[in-house]
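Board work, copied verbatim: T9SS type A sorting domain-containing protein
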Amino acid sequence: MGRRVRTQSIPTAAGLNKLALNIASLAPGFYVLSWQDTQGKIGTRKFIRQ
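↓ predict structure ↓
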């Protein structure tokens, strides 16, 4: 519990980006997705893999 499962760097363009993440290999459970942009701003989203 509370461990990092995957780290991934994804190149993006300036502006709004929508990305599809493959979560098929994740075991069912509760996850927190976090990201950091090039200006250092951090965001998070919680999701449940069923």
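The chain is about 0% helix and 30% strand.
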